[in-house]
């Protein structure tokens, strides 16, 4: 398996399990998703993505451009994305990264996911300091000012109390915040037909409800919103149970029906299969079902070859 993927060992899944590719938040490694593996098995196979310069790949150079990083991911995992039904999940920084991966997959005419889960972040269209509830640009700060701003924004982290640990992770976090704070969508006027689930926590001070609802402008499908009560920004690690129940309900249904749908041919896989499963899902969350504007450009399942000539168009 690619060194980009770090699944938890010893977890068995069904042969037709839906793959869930997971992208972590700034400063985190792929192992943050290991606790999900047994909870979503056997119908969902959790495939955490390990980014260069993080955790098990700490010695590798990091990438500070979101679009370039998404291209590297698709270069490395193209065969994995083409090997059966899958979904994308990204938390915080990982939400924007998952969105860029989706767009790069479409540009290359690779199979698209059943669903995109974007968690703990405002819509990609709302990038930039003008939409950030805390406009401080952490990637521009030296260590002392960085940690003051970091703790003001996210709270004190006992795991980062030692000066040696702070000195070790500071370069990685600074690069990750460069990735986030300089992000510009590669195709800002393009929508996808892939359904999006936008997830937020009521006690997370990094975004507003309207920031989350704004993900609707990125898809022609009806946006699903999931709100987690009583939780803050790190809910994917601290208290993921209610979130995993929602994901399991959707993707387990897709897994159990994928074999019969695939018998109908390629049209029954990818986005089409995901849309079929939506008719049968039980969603323990608040849903926002807004209709997109007909004038918006759409990211199709099979784009014209001209869209595939360059990674990061316009950048």
Automatic annotation (TrEMBL):
* InterPro entries reported in the protein's UniProt record: AB_hydrolase_fold, TEII, Thioesterase
A Pfam family: Thioesterase
Q: Which domain of life is it from?
A: Eukaryota
One GO biological process this protein is involved in is: lipid biosynthetic process
- Identify the residues that the record assigns to the Thioesterase domain, covering every copy: 19-248
Location of the region described as Disordered in the Swiss-Prot/TrEMBL record: 291-315
Q: Which family does it belong to?
A: Belongs to the thioesterase family.
**PANTHER family to which the protein is assigned, alphabetical:** S-ACYL FATTY ACID SYNTHASE THIOESTERASE, MEDIUM CHAIN (PTHR11487:SF0), THIOESTERASE (PTHR11487)
Q: What is this protein called?
A: Thioesterase domain-containing protein
């Amino acid at each position: 398996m690619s060194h980009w993927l770090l699944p938890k060992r010893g977890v068995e899944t069904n042969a037709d399990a839906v793959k869930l590719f997971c992208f972590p938040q700034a400063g985190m490694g792929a192992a943050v998703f290991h606790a999900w593996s047994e909870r979503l098995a056997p119908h969902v196979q959790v495939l955490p993505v390990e980014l260069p310069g993080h955790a098990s790949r700490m010695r590798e150079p990091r990438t500070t451009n979101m679009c370039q990083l998404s291209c590297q991911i698709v270069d490395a995992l193209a065969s994995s994305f083409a090997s059966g039904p899958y979904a994308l999940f990204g938390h915080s920084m990982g939400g924007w990264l998952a969105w860029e991966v989706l767009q790069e997959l479409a540009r290359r005419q690779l199979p698209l996911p059943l669903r995109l889960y974007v968690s703990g972040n405002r819509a990609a269209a709302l990038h930039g300091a003008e939409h950030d509830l805390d406009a401080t640009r952490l990637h521009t700060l030296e260590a002392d000012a960085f940690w003051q701003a970091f703790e003001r924004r996210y709270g004190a982290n006992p795991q980062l109390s030692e000066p040696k640990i702070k000195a070790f992770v500071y370069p990685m976090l600074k690069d990750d915040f460069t990735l986030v704070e300089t992000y510009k969508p590669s195709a800002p006027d393009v929508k996808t037909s892939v359904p999006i689930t936008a997830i937020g926590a009521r006690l997370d001070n990094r975004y507003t409800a309207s920031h989350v609802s704004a993900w609707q402008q990125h898809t022609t499908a009806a946006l699903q919103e999931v709100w987690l009560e009583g939780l803050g920004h790190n809910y994917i690690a601290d208290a993921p149970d209610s979130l995993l129940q929602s994901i399991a309900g959707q993707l387990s249904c897709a897994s159990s029906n994928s074999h019969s749908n695939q018998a109908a041919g390629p049209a029954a896989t990818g986005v089409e299969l995901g849309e079929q499963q939506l008719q049968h899902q039980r969603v323990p969350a608040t849903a926002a079902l807004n209709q997109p504007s007909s004038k918006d450009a759409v990211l199709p399942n099979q784009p014209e070859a001209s869209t595939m000539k360059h990674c990061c168009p316009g950048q």
